[in-house]
Write a structure and sequence with these properties.
alpha+beta, about 10% strand, binds glutathione, globular, 4-stranded mixed sheet, 4 strands, single chain, about 210 residues, 8 helices
């Protein structure tokens, strides 16, 4: 096995893959993204995480996790056997990426725009989407331990960074106690606690200012 992960410790989508690697103690070389030219030579879209497995390049966090499960499975089965259960995991993974991570990133990226370039309507829509996502999730995670049921899966790898950062920019507060408790369960998981700790030195980079929590 010769795995190299191009990632950054503070980047939400990189957390998804790091958590998957740590869950199964999968050995890999960590290349912290700094030189965008090298990344661009491998993937012109210039997004990370990016995994090199020997000569193969694999991109998109969910696809990287699927690749790891196919080639290097471990004790934590992040994609369950059985198509119905796997579909639920993939659905919840999409839910967290599309309806929690995308709107929280909209809030962060808008803060980084210059004066006169802010998108007030887009920001309001992102906040409304986060409220709808929290509201829908409340019922789901109040009845089960993990995002897709009773086992920790890829959906939880997606949920952890999504809810970690979303709460920073659009607090879950006391409105959604089930979501708050789920977020706390995620942060207590050793693979996730390790990922949070590795990112701690970079908190000063957070454009909206990291809150005094977590
Ligand atoms: N859909 C992609 C999203 C990747 C993504 O947006 N990565 C961010 C870091 S979390 C990134 O590459 N940002 C750099 C940029 O957009 O220039 C995935 O799941 O891997």
């Amino acid at each position: 096995m010769s795995l190299t992960l191009y990632a950054h410790p503070f980047a939400a989508y990189c957390w998804k893959v790091l958590i998957a690697l740590y869950e199964n103690a999968t050995p890999f070389t960590y290349r912290v993204v700094g030189d965008m030219a090298e990344l661009e030579s491998l993937w012109p879209i210039k997004k990370f995480p990016l995994l090199r497995d020997g000569d193969a390049t694999i991109v998109e966090s969910s696809v990287i996790i699927e690749h790891l499960m196919l080639r290097y499975p471990g004790p934590t089965r992040l994609i369950p056997d059985g198509s119905e259960a796997a579909l639920k995991v993939r659905f919840m993974d999409r839910f967290f990426d599309n309806y929690v991570s995308t709107p929280f990133q909209k809030l962060v990226l808008d803060r980084m725009r210059a004066d006169g370039e802010h998108d007030a309507k887009g920001v309001a829509e992102a906040r409304a989407l986060l409220d709808r996502a929290y509201g829908w999730l409340e019922n789901q995670v109040s009845q089960q331990a993990w995002a897709a049921g009773s086992h920790f899966t890829m959906a939880d790898c997606a949920a952890a960074p999504a809810l970690f950062y979303a709460d920073w920019v659009h607090p879950i507060g006391h409105r959604f106690p089930g979501v708050c408790n789920f977020r706390a369960r995620l942060l207590a998981r050793p693979s996730i606690a390790r990922t949070v700790e590795e990112a701690r030195p970079y908190r000063k980079l957070f454009p909206l200012g990291a809150p005094d929590q977590d």
